[in-house]
Amino acid sequence: MNVHENDAIYNLTDTCVHPLTLSELLAMDDMHASKGIRMDYGVIPGDDRLRRKIADLYVSAPIEQITTAHGCLEANALVLETLLKPGDRVITYTPSYQQFSDLSRSLGCKVTALPLYEEDGWQPHIDDLETAFGDPVRLVILNQPNNPTGTVFEPPYLQKLGELTERYHAWILADEVYRDPAIPSLSDQLPRCISTGSLSKMYSLAGLRLGWIRADQKLITHINSRRDYTIISTGPLIDSLGLAALSHQEEILDRSRSLIAANKEAVHEWLQNEPRAHVCMPAAGTVCFLRYDLGMPSAALAEQMLKDTGVFFVPGSCFDCEHHLRLGLTNDPQLTAQGLQKFSAWMDQHC
Fold first, then answer.
1. What's the pLDDT tens digit per position in 282-325?
2. Are residues 40 and 162 in the same domain?
3. What is the helix (H) or strand (E) element at residue 267, kind and residue range?
4. Claim to verify: residue 243 and residue 255 sit in the same structural domain
5. Is-contact 5 304, C-beta < 8 A?
6. To bridge 75 with a disulfide, which of 69, 88, 255, 274 should be the other Cys (CB 3.0-4.6 Å)?
7. What's the pTM?
């Protein structure tokens, strides 16, 4: 995305709901007081009012279980660097976010990636999970909902995951950056679960770079000790803007839900007339995984189509899953519809 997305006319792969402008955010809240913010480090683990708002996204979480980070990406990294040591075994899923496997490997860990099965709606299999726990496991990492498939793990699988991690004293890291707060957090359901999130996806504020970790208070203390040597703090300006967003979260989330629903409808209408594309539409999240019926590898397809039409997808090869493309549900729906029609016209020329 770093190389290609700025060349796109139709960015059909973005994961963040169409971003708010700073003016739109400020208009929701009386931010005149922000001019009086003292530009020091602020409260090191995050402003207390902000952390209370984040804690309210969970069923029962005191602010001592919350610390902030620069986006969910850094929140995940802080958890991994605090929990893992060389030789630890980590379970991840595929297709999924590359950070989970690659950062774990860079820390010297052994990674086992369990498949999500497209024929089963991109759900994992309990048998695979039980087999993976045949050797000691330190950490299981998952997206909830998943990137790129939108998978929300089903209750029987989560129950088994909870049983196994408790039995073998393993941890779960649930990256819930795509979670709508209407969906229960796994950290409220599974005792050994750490949850991370941010304002990037559903809240349309990726540029604010505000993320967080919810975890056991003892673990948060360890994370905060490491954090002192990485970011120190998110800072009072970011904290105040994050507080404004969460103080008006229903307004922001209603906008996001409306855009996602309209994009799903645009994709559904396109699929009715496009037999070469197939999508298992997710119940939640901001992305889905499109399978196409062309012989061309996904990276070559994505690069050539961008050059020819301005339509941009992240190729499935980035997720070790060929002949797929990540399709975002986050744009202006008219732009999505136009881009998909251009995709069809491009496929007509390459069949």
1. 999 999 999 999 999 999 999 999 999 999 999 999 999 999 99
2. yes
3. helix 249-272
4. no
5. no
6. 69
7. 0.95
